From TrEMBL:
It holds the Pfam family ABC_tran. Keywords: Amino-acid transport, ATP-binding, Nucleotide-binding, Transport. SMART domains: AAA (SM00382). One of its GO terms (biological process) is L-amino acid transport. This is Amino acid/amide ABC transporter ATP-binding protein 2 (HAAT family). Gene3D superfamilies: P-loop containing nucleotide triphosphate hydrolases (3.40.50.300). Belongs to the ABC transporter superfamily.
Amino acid sequence: MAMLELHDVVVNYGAIEALHGLSLQVEEGQVVSLIGANGAGKTTTMRAISGVRPLTSGKIIFEGADITRMPAHNRVAEGICQSPEGRGVFPGMTVLENLDMGTFARKFPSKAQYNEMVEHIFGLFPRLEERKGQKGGLLSGGEQQMLAIGRALMARPKLLLLDEPSLGLAPKIIQQILQIITGINKDGTTVLLVEQNAQGALSRSHFAYILETGAVTKSGPGKQLLTDPAVKEAYLGVA
Ligand code: ATP
């Protein structure tokens, strides 16, 4: 049984059908990527999984339970946590206060465990420790992205949803973020990743799905898709 299963998911924005019966699976312990052009439905898929966008039809199963109609905050408590596209850092709050926001849906049983997690996140992102008292709005784009990922980790997700973590970042920072995602996965968190940087995402993914206009058109191990001629031409800029 996969950790997460989407079966024939249809999602509408009013009269517009953004997902037309999308099915996919995420196996526990893996990094799984969604690759696709603008408007293919990647963000909508993430929203359906986190519960901020209702399904018109279809089913979502998490750890064997049907969560199709479960409210978003309950999904966080179950272990599904999203670091949203556009980062969503609170600009007027400090780095530490932003991290605390990640604990609301899932409080730590003790202060010691809270401290341990903050230490862990500062270990992943030393820049955040250096700037822990600084306001979120004063951080660079890359640091804000690190903070958004750190905040999501504060909820101790089983499944971490990352929507375009490299958006707008310099190539060096992109590599750093992708490396950290691999590290988070090795620590035991399953990751579902949406990335424009198809090369970087596929090379680090156990499995990936190609989305076109609201449905899956191809899937396979990341490294296999990297060598697929059609994928190369459409997403890797190689003819
Ligand atoms: P991007 O990389 O640009 O974020 P995406 O693959 O994440 O693209 P979605 O944002 O999921 O794609 O969009 C899927 C479809 O749904 C598109 O046709 C888009 O125009 C439409 N759509 C998305 N959000 C809305 C909205 N709030 N209202 C109406 N239509 C929407």
